[in-house]
Amino acid sequence: MRAVGIVVLVVTALLGTAYALGRSLVPDRPASDVTTSTGQHYADQPPTDDPDRPTPGDDRSTGPAVAGQDGASPSGTPSGTPTAADGPYGTQTTSGTSQVALTFDDGPDPQYTPQVLALLREHHVRATFCVVGENAQSHPDLIRAIVADGHTLCNHTWNHDVTLGQQSPNAIRADLLRTSEAIRAAVPNAPIAYYRQPGGAWTRSVVSVARELGMTPLHWTVDPADWETPGADRIAGMVLTSVEPGSVVLLHDAGGDRQGTVDALHEILPALTSRFKVAALPNGAT
After folding, report:
1. pLDDT tens digits, residue range 81-114?
2. Which of 44, 68, 131, 264 is deepest in the core (most CB within 10 A)?
3. 156, 219, 252, 253: the active-site residue
């Protein structure tokens, strides 16, 4: 029995040593490579097939490139004096001043956009509307209402194409021009000072084409994920606890059920205007 016990101890020790040796040969997975069962990456810099995506220290961007749906995490909030062009590929993420900028994506929408405009008018706030070309074509009256109230316009592609940045420069240019033409069909000579890539899926090509067409690529600083319809209280709470001087806030007035966003504005607008100067981004008009 003593001999059997000694053999068992020797075998156990050998197995433990073999396991430890084998485990040491397997490299640990980096934190940036951890995924959930749905494939969603939880990392500052999601994986990408784009060889031109800037990396930390790349002078094309001081913040991480962001891909995914609208609401993917931005590079962070400003501290101290805001610096506007601090996003992916040099995109603008702040107002560049101490003013806070509200932005509304995916419209115009005949149900929600008029409600947003009425609330902004009530609180004497001007905002920036990133409009989708096919919606502008379908609702030219709402484009005219946005401009008439003094809001700034932003091009948001023809049909909210998250993959547009992966296409050729000619295809990107055609999409952006088509969208701007639909906006200007409603309001001739309307200034369109900004371009926002759907999903924040920026590439060097889409940034380059937007700048070539005279539009500043516009990212964001604060994202309450209203596109996930979390309810008015959560949307308002996220905005009001995250905003700092210079913040650009991402909201939506179309693309789904946006009543929660509209309802949240009843709390957001009076609270923000009591703490900050809230204004539209400059449209470049003289």
Report:
1. 345 778 999 999 999 999 999 999 999 999 999 9
2. 131
3. 252
CA distance 245 to 247: 6
The token duo for 109 is 């929408």
Task: Write out the DSSP string of 8-38.
Answer: HHHHHHHHHHHHHHHHHTSPPPPGGG-B-TT
From 265, 259, 255, 262, select the one nearest 109 (Cα to Cα): 255
Q: Which of 105, 109, 175, 253 is flagged as catalytic?
A: 105
CA gap 158, 54 in Å, rounded: 26
CA 285 to chain centre: 25
C-beta of residue 62 within 8 angstroms of C-beta of residue 53: no
DSSP 8-state symbol, 80: S
Neighbours of 28 (CB within 10 A): 6
252 is catalytic: yes
CA gap 266, 76 in Å, rounded:
26
Helix (H) or strand (E) holding 195: strand 192-195
Name the burial class of residue 1, with classes exposed (0-12), middle (13-18) and buried (19+) by CB atoms within 10 angstroms of its CB: exposed
Measured between alpha carbons, how far is 250 from 91 in angstroms, rounded to an integer?
A: 15
Q: Which residue has the tokens 């062009």?
A: 85
The sheet with strand 101-105 has its strands ordered as: 216-217, 192-195, 152-155, 128-131, 101-105, 248-252
Q: Per mean pLDDT, which range of 10-19, 143-152, 205-214, 217-226 is the poorest?
A: 10-19
Q: Are 92 and 217 in contact (CB under 8 A)?
A: yes
The tokens describing 163, both together, are 């993959």
pLDDT (tens digit per residue) in 260-275: 999 999 999 999 999 9
Active site annotation includes 123: no
Q: Quick one: CA dihedral 183, 188, 190, 194, positive or negative? A: positive
How many angstroms separate the CA atoms of 262 and 268, rounded? 10
